[in-house]
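Handout, page 2. Input:
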Amino acid sequence: MRNAVISRIPILPGGLVNAHLIHGSQGAILVDAGLPGTERRIDSALRRLGLSFRDIKLIVITHAHVDHAGGTAKLRDLTGAPVAAHVADLPYYRREKAMTFCPTGWFGRLFLRSGLMYEPYAAFEPDILLQADEALDLHRFGVDGVVRHTGGHTAGSLAVELGSRDMLVGDLISSGLLLGGIALTDRPKRPPFEDDPAVVSAVLQRMVLAGGQRFHMGHGGPLDAGDVERHLRKLSRRGALQESALPLR
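Output:
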């Protein structure tokens, strides 16, 4: 898919929750499945692009939070596409364990009280289950890119790194107001929840140093590399970035 295009799919308005589609002449890869019951929004986005569910060749789930994984089981049925995810989040995909959340600030704490992050979704078993730091080469799906384990946001978080230097990073970073999106979407910030901020910072730093140019995320965005660098400098000044915590990959 040499001329692949990245299209944002609005799961909720204003960039509040995003999925993404990587698409070209050989089909499409869906990155994240949105909330339960939002498959109609994905269907509408596909139709606007002249595509259908059957054009999706792979579904990549960046992590197990309900706004990213909630629609997976239904979308696999609709598309027939395999689902790729990481083993570290498997107990949550199987619904064997309840998610735990580490708020990064007042909004995260307030949002947890709403109970929305605990909304149940249909269990599923990934078809492609990445182990440890195993990567998935996307060339067999017609895309110049790779899916890598990042951890940080959740233990099993994944990102898609494309040869175009586009990075689809799930919730490693967000932008905008509150959850993300709505307004001020060119201003990066930490997401409402984050398991290990040192790991997140190190991974984002590695992506920038490796030449990542455009960062697409689940809430707000996209951001360019300069935005991400400024975000990392801010974290460093605030003591949130521990450069020695994780070596750059």
